[in-house]
Write a structure and sequence with these properties.
about 90 residues, mainly alpha, elongated
Length: about 90
Amino acid sequence: MAHTLSAKKRVRQNARRNARNSAKRSTMRTAIKKTVSAIEEGDKEKAQDALNAVSSILDRYSHKGLIHRNKAARHKSRLNAKVKALAS
């Protein structure tokens, strides 16, 4: 258990940040799953809308440091390739 005031404050801060980051990660994963399900349904328009939404979320969270920028780029690239493949 933390003994100093600063250590106790750190525990409080870490708990708040952990809860916030967990919620954001959940939002991100849900958006990715929605995009994947739209792709599996074969609905190009719905998949494109979901891709736009998830791209925005990934960019925002990578900029804030929640995920690495390469991870965001990898997800966007793979999802975009799958959406483009629906056209053909």
